[in-house]
Amino acid sequence: MNSKLATGKKLAGQVKQYKKAALLSPLCTIGCVILEILIPYLTASIIDNGIAVGNMAHVARIGAIMAVMAIVAMFFGVTANRLSAKASTGFAANLRSAMFENIQSFSFSGIDKFSTAGLVTRLTTDVTHIQMSFHMILMVCTRAPVTLIVALVMALSISAKLSLIFLGVMIFLFAALFILVPMAMRYFRQMFKKYDALNATIKENVGAIRVVKSFVREEHEHEKFTRAAQDVFNNSVSAEKIISLNGPIMSSCVYTCILLISWFGAQMIVNKTGLTTGELTSLLSYIMNILMSLMMLSMVFVMLSNSIAAAQRVGEVLEEKTDIASPENAVTTVADGSIDFENVSFAYQQTGEGKPVLSDIDLHIRSGETIGVIGGTGSSKSSLVNLISRLYDVSEGSVKVGGVDVRDYDVERLRSEVSVVLQKNVLFSGTILDNLRWGDENATEEQCREACRLACADDFIQSFPDGYNTKIERGGTNVSGGQKQRLCIARALLRKPKVLILDDSTSAVDTATDARIRAALKTYLPETTKIIIAQRIASVQDADRVLVMDEGRVNGFDTPENLLETNAIYREVYESQNQGGSGDFDEDAKKDASHAKTSLEKGGARA
Asked: What is the pTM of this model?
């Protein structure tokens, strides 16, 4: 219960600048309702004191008053609706903004917890349900209870005996809602999970549409989408079957009330026992007011049962606290690029097994060193380097950069000094310059060009008609894999970091270009610690030392020459990649690097 209250307060806090509209809308609605409820009462006066006795002056006077009241009521109604729309849409905008802002602070483990598709559903579908409910709360949840109370009071003032019929029907309807709403809520909670699965299917298919087409898997993907859509359909039908009972129940109550009031009211008029024709007409109007209010309330309960599930899901995102945050009195200066892993173990929280993917890691890297990292698939190379920029926190031990535990740094400052080119290269919609300036938003065009020359990207950029102003499509789909990698490397270089991590980020370029990039890094970033994860031995041959990973443990850490003699895994990879070659693979790679270094130095001198 406390968590639900906390969630409610968290959501209510997002009304913010729309509080005035949210408060004025119900007040206008109350004014509209009071005026509308008084009109049937005046109608009775026209019938009994005007038409029945032939007093047309009374009819004209009361009719004029009713016309004015109707116009004022319409004004209140329009104003209430406008204010409600403004408050609900603003509330939804604030919710999405607050969720998105909090999501930006999530660690990778937080993203893993909710899933990308789940977050998209919460930001869109869930918030839309909450917006609609908030609009209904401001309008209907004010209008219906006030109408119910005022109409019931007026009905009691006309005939307390006949009004007992209303009370009996109200008790019956509330009992029906008490049974139906919890049943519907169970299906609505399930439905949002089905939406998550549907969005995940769409995202995966659209994001990998080229792969789908190249493997001719359209039919398979269509079947998978159809199953996900069918799950949503089945769940919605189950919920609607329950909700559909609401309409017949309400209609039965309305007609029952009309029949009973008409029957007993007519008898009272004929027997002259305290009821006039005008009062019976008013009572019938109040029947409709009361029962329509009950019908609106039942609709609100149904919608709220849907939105409560959505609100809980949105609240989870708003209340999620990142497990990676800057401490108080955080260190804001990274002294150098030295890196120390001291008895480090690490396990992903979302695996549910608690099995470490890294165990007993003890490494010491000097500032300015170039470290190669190799290992088989699943040897946790990427997991290792993710700890350096604190994308995840260690489970045991500590990781230090510049002699300071990464958990003691200001997170933003640490990550600005540890540039990472991830295994999955991502470019964003915009120009090439826009993408490069993710590394340094204040970088000049010449600085961007220099970074691209270092990353061997300048040549292909210049070949584009628009050069550095070439538009990049979402995800970088209009450039090749190798071009995308080089742009991402250039983006990272613009940060001029203390530590540069290349996570298999030259796999899509040829060996000569790879060698030129490595030579550029060594020449122009001598003080930067460079960690290069690679599958090709050629990519780590000129590293100061090479780290060999095997099943989450350090299998070897030494110079390439020493590892070739002492480490079985390194030697096996080396020999397998040189099998059938000239035997001068090592020399070729060194020649490539030497040639690249000379070319870059000449290019730098010209620049």
From this structure: 0.63
